[in-house]
Design brief:
The protein is an alpha+beta fold and about 450 residues long. The chain has helices at about 20-30, 40, 45-55, 60-70, 85-90, 95-115, 115-120, 140-145, 185-190, 210-220, 295-300, 305-315, 330-355, 365-380, 385-400, 415-435; strands at about 125-135, 150, 150-155, 155-165, 170-180, 200-205, 225, 235-240, 245-250, 265-270, 280-285.
């Protein structure tokens, strides 16, 4: 059998299966338990529809997205497509484990593209963990709740925590939980720790500072770098240099009966000061100063900024702030497809960079995503004989979308100073306008 079952007689997914090979789709489909709408859509059809919806989530509703998906070439009259209600029912019952297998397959494909010496730094895989708040539809309020404001309950919100690869620039795993005021992100962190492996180095935001988290990471053989919380008073053991030393931190009484949390823990603390930024104390488990210098530790934690740019791309470039799901299961499925779109875009960007000789990671994600949107819109009508040529042209176009490099460009994080400058600038404009009127 040359191709999988199409979702409609005018739609063929033979070209689309170049991103998801037929053997992978067929084997995954056979392992999937049948349910009511399996025979109507198929795995390849659902993957394409999910990716197409994720790529066009800026449209206000699913009906407009499906109208765009049904648009055929001008030589053919529009035809009916799978209905929105059918797709929603299909999505509500789709097994999450199938989406997890697709995630693993895409991640393995991307890692195979990268040279082995570029994936790790001194034998360590560089990762970052951070979270963000997602605004949801009102129908999801009973499941996730909301951050309470002084004037009552706010919009439905969820807390998204992501494990992110700083080299390949892709999400490795994510967890979603409640965003209520009395809930803390530490439980979600514990659930995502199982995806970490020995010889991983994790950059963590200061909001996750806890000796319990440090103990969990060290128990799995994972190293970490995290800013010390404000007011922390560690005990100096040995000074390595002026801004570097070994310290002891003590566990509070709440961890007294927790077996895996030690009473005291030896860590390394480095004082870092960048121009225009507040001084910071970095706590790390990399105790060997001869193997890992303080300058390298500071540089490594600076790479954590890539996960912040990922959240910006996720919320603004992908516009993953408009959700079309009405149930928690459908919401999780929608997030999966947003993540798939990020990984596929990064996968094609890496292939384009390697083929053209451009530095990996120096291509513009936003411009490349626009090209991927176009490919998703034509791939179901594209004859197989043209796929190789179209994909070759796509790689050439993507290799030309380099990020603008601006040497020496830096912004101070002193918000009060920026506000003062803004106020003085605004008052100057008001005075000038009054003078011109007079």
């Amino acid at each position: 059998m040359e191709s999988t079952q199409p979702i409609y007689r005018h739609f063929s997914f033979t070209s689309f299966n170049h991103l998801f090979p037929h053997n992978f789709i067929k084997q995954t489909w056979l392992n999937m338990k049948p349910y009511r709408r399996k025979r109507y859509l198929g795995l390849d059809g659902f993957l394409w529809l999910g990716l197409f919806t994720a790529a066009h989530t800026y449209l206000p509703n699913l009906q407009q997205i499906f109208n765009l998906a049904c648009r055929l070439p001008q030589t053919m009259a529009p035809v009916s497509f799978v209905s929105v209600s059918a797709f929603c029912q299909y999505r509500n019952g789709f097994p999450i484990k199938i989406l997890v297998s697709v995630w693993r397959y895409l991640t393995q494909r991307l890692y195979q593209l990268y040279p082995s010496e570029t994936i790790r730094w001194k034998g360590l895989r560089l990762l970052a963990i951070d979270g963000t708040i997602l605004n949801l539809l009102e129908s999801l309020w009973p499941h996730f709740g909301a951050l309470k404001g002084c004037r009552g309950a706010g919009p439905a919100q969820a807390y998204l925590i992501t494990l992110y690869d700083l080299i390949t620039r892709i999400p490795i795993a994510f967890r979603v939980g409640k965003a209520e005021n009395n809930s803390r992100p530490q439980p979600l962190f514990k659930r995502i720790v199982k995806h970490l492996k020995p010889d991983d180095l994790v950059m963590i935001d200061s909001g996750f500072y806890s000796i319990e988290i440090f103990a969990l990471l060290l128990k799995r053989g994972v190293n970490f770098i995290i800013p010390m919380r404000a007011g922390g008073k560690p005990k100096l053991i040995r000074r390595i240099s002026k801004n570097d030393g070994l310290y002891q931190i003590k566990a509070s009484r709440q961890w007294k009966n927790v077996s895996y949390v030690p009473e005291v823990m030896t860590v390394r603390i480095i004082n870092v000061q960048h121009t225009g930024f507040r001084p910071k104390r970095l706590v790390t488990s990399l105790l060997n100063a001869s193997s890992y210098s303080s300058e390298e530790i500071a540089w490594l934690y600076h790479q954590r900024w890539h996960i912040e740019t990922f959240f910006r791309e996720f919320k603004h470039t992908l516009q993953a702030t408009r959700w079309h799901a009405r149930s928690p299961h459908a919401f999780y499925t929608e997030i999966f497809f947003q993540m798939f779109l990020v990984i596929i875009t990064r996968l094609i960007m890496a292939e384009a960079a390697l083929k053209s000789g451009e530095p990996i990671g120096q291509l513009s994600f936003g411009k490349c995503l626009a090209e991927i949107r176009y490919i998703l819109s034509i791939i179901t009508h594209l004859p197989v004989k043209y796929w190789a040529k179209v994909y070759e042209e796509l790689l050439i176009r993507l290799s030309g979308y380099r990020i603008d490099v601006r040497p020496g460009r830096r912004f101070e994080r002193d918000t009060q100073k920026r506000r003062e400058q803004s106020r003085s600038r605004y008052s100057y404009i008001i005075k000038k306008e009054k003078k011109d009127v007079a």
